[in-house]
Design a protein that fits this description.
The protein is α/β, with parallel strands linked by helices. Helix content is 38%, strand content 14%. Helix 3 runs parallel beside helix 11.
């Protein structure tokens, strides 16, 4: 199997600054301008040098995607954004890679690699303040998670924190894991950051039960801070576990809409040319139930292809939304992406 950065653990042998609403600055049209890509990746040099070791270590789970091993640069991302007409992107640190429990044994310098990746990602904002917003990354189950958040607290170049529950081996049915995750959400909220969470876990039966425990026991810890659920609650693609998790959110949000005013879902890498039409229709039904303004445009660049213009122009329109609905999502800008 192929292991990508956004879904690099999908190949595991388990699978069958503000709290206001996003701004919508465009008028509905067939192809409204895409203002912000809410989900992109760049590996820091320290992580890129580490990737061959990572890929060798986890080869028992699958092979790494070529996009993970390709040394893309900030200029590559800027070129892709310019070609696609994207003004700004959230760049997510991949500092969680060396800390993954899939690494056996873990690298002795995992904490240093994580911190170096975060520092480099934050530096992108200083170099390109009009184009990038930085999300640092931690493994919520490791003892260095809260100290790393404390280190960056108060740094204006940090917009949020990225958590990858699959990579970190988080089990949303494990009480201790839920407590650790809640502590990270609380710390991020206290720092006035958004939390972007890759929610899907390694469980083969991931679904509504996991989403519900997250809703009940973790989400309240954010205390109103913005929360972005990556890949619409999955790990890329549309399948029954993803739809089940998203259905749990839909049910909860319809029952208690005010509790979810600060929650959004990004649509990065959720469908492809090969996605069955029935799956896309099921996703659209859930998007409409939840409300279009809870969904954000994102590409998962470069894992959906280095040509962002092609992904945005060819793949994104394949979701069977109306032109007006597409425009609402395309022009959405989350408060932490301004």
């Amino acid at each position: 199997m192929r292991i990508t950065c956004a879904v690099f653990l999908l190949a595991l042998a388990v699978a069958p600054p503000g709290n206001g609403a996003p701004i919508n600055t465009g008028q509905p049209s067939a192809r409204a301008e895409l203002l912000v890509d809410h989900h992109t990746h760049l590996n820091a040099p320290a992580i890129q040098a580490f990737v061959p070791t990572f890929c060798e270590q986890i080869s028992r789970y699958g092979r790494c995607d070529a996009a993970l091993t390709t040394p893309y640069t900030p200029d590559d991302l800027l070129h892709a954004m310019d070609k696609a007409g994207v003004s700004r992107a959230l760049v997510l640190s991949t500092g969680y890679l060396p800390e993954s429990p899939m690494m056996d044994p873990p690298p002795a310098n995992a904490t240093g690699l994580m911190h170096s990746a975060n520092a480099w990602t934050v530096g992108l904002v200083r170099a390109h303040p009009d184009r990038f917003r930085a999300f640092i990354a931690v493994d919520p189950l490791r003892p260095d998670a809260l100290p790393e958040l404390a280190y960056w607290r108060g740094n204006a170049a940090v917009s949020g924190v990225k958590l990858h529950l699959t990579s970190s081996g988080v089990d949303l049915r494990n009480d201790a894991h839920l407590a650790a995750l809640a502590r990270v959400f609380k710390a991020a909220g206290q720092a006035h950051w958004a939390v972007l969470v890759h929610l899907r876990t390694q469980r083969g039966d991931y679904g509504a039960k996991d989403a519900q425990r997250f809703i009940d026991e973790v989400l309240p810890a954010a205390a109103g801070a913005p929360v972005q659920i990556a890949h619409a609650g999955g790990w890329g693609g549309i399948d029954p576990p993803t739809l089940a998790a998203l259905t749990a959110f839909a049910d909860a949000m319809q029952a208690h809409p005010r509790r979810f005013r600060h929650v959004w879902f990004d649509l990065s890498g959720v469908w492809t040319d090969k996605t069955p039409e029935a799956d896309k229709r099921a996703l659209v039904a859930l998007i409409r139930r939840i409300g279009l303004r809870h969904f954000l445009p994102g590409s998962d660049w470069p894992y959906t292809g280095a040509d962002l213009a092609d992904y945005d122009g060819r793949v994104v329109p394949q979701l069977p939304l109306t032109a007006a609905e597409q425009a609402i999502i395309r022009t959405q800008v989350a408060p932490y992406a301004r």
